[in-house]
């Protein structure tokens, strides 16, 4: 991309009051942005309103500075992964996103070089998952990557991060293991504690944003970027979600885009499972293993892969009476005393041992939950 071309696209994207819909209509009517700005007001008025025409005939505030910053960012290509700006006119623009109702005018991309966009599966869920939910997300991510799929998520806390980490563990050398679609400019990392994760994703996958450099983490931008997460996956898997969760927005957008929606069921007592259960009532496919998803998405699924299904426990813990008494829902100490007839002091000691062995997680509110590992 030449600097003049970049400048024209940024000017179109920044024009006050000219949204993505009007911008796409202008592109359809006149061609590339340079050609739009060559038009007189009468021609522009055939597509845009009076205020929009006036905005198009002026340089947006901060435009020249953003052109310089973005051009300098692009010149760092190769230092820590490839850096590109893909426009609607770029043949490298992801076709699965181009075919949606509201594709971004521009995509900022940082990471591995691509010959074509990989087949993806989106994983979303709670930013405050249960330990089992995070474990499940990581195992699903790992299994999908091992099967040759790219895991798409949003690099948020909780389920997103666990899915990315699992994919990075399961990806093969040279494979685009995971794509993080973020809600800020790519020169920022949000949340900041994910800086190391972002570096790993840039090395083994892609960081993607529709927002210009310097864009801070604004609340309204995150639900909007969810349509990109949904579009880059052939299906969307919701691992844990509360009823009022952004993950349900992603699931709805995926369904509207004609993608499959999958949900992992959970305890009827867990608030983090209620969003998934609502999706299941609305027709999402119930899945317990990665293979369930792969079989739905591909009629020629790869050979059976390691799945996120709980594996039979082995070793001494397999025989633990206490693990059987715990069941699979969060439970308090008083309930365990009643179930086992064991004193609270003895139970505390046994629970600590199981916690240290990774078989039990301690939850807020004095609850304990059995963990299953695939």
Quick gist of this model?
The protein is an alpha/beta fold and 374 residues long.
What does this structure look like?
- The structure is a single chain.
- By secondary structure, the chain is of the alpha/beta class.
- The chain has three domains: 73 residues, DNA polymerase, domain 1, CATH 1.10.150; 191 residues, Rossmann fold (3-Layer(aba) Sandwich), CATH 3.40.50; 50 residues, Arc Repressor Mutant, subunit A.
- The chain has 17 helices and twelve strands.
- A nine-stranded mixed β-sheet has the order 1-2-6-5-4-3-7-8-9, sandwiched between helices. Strands 10-12-11 form a three-stranded antiparallel β-sheet.
- Helix 8 links the parallel strand 3 and strand 4.
- The longest helix has 16 residues.
- About 5% of the residues have low confidence.
CATH architecture tag of the largest domain: 3-Layer(aba) Sandwich
- Please indicate the count of domains: 3
Order of strands, widest sheet: 1-2-6-5-4-3-7-8-9
Quaternary status? single chain
Flag low-confidence runs. Answer: 300-316
Helix tally equals: 17
Features of this protein?
9-stranded mixed sheet; 3-stranded antiparallel sheet; 12 strands; DNA polymerase, domain 1; alpha/beta; single chain; 374 residues; Rossmann fold
What's the SSE blueprint?
Elements: H1 3-14, H2 20-30, H3 33-37, H4 41-44, H5 50-56, H6 63-74, E1 82-87, H7 95-98, E2 106-111, E3 120-124, H8 131-146, E4 150-153, H9 159-170, E5 178-181, H10 195-204, E6 205-209, H11 221-232, E7 235-238, H12 246-256, E8 260-263, H13 274-281, E9 285-286, H14 290-297, H15 321-326, E10 331-332, H16 333-340, H17 344-356, E11 360-363, E12 367-370
Parallel strand pairs: 3-4, 3-7, 4-5, 5-6, 7-8, 8-9
Antiparallel strand pairs: 1-2, 2-6, 10-12, 11-12
Helix pairs in contact: 1-6, 8-9, 9-10, 11-12
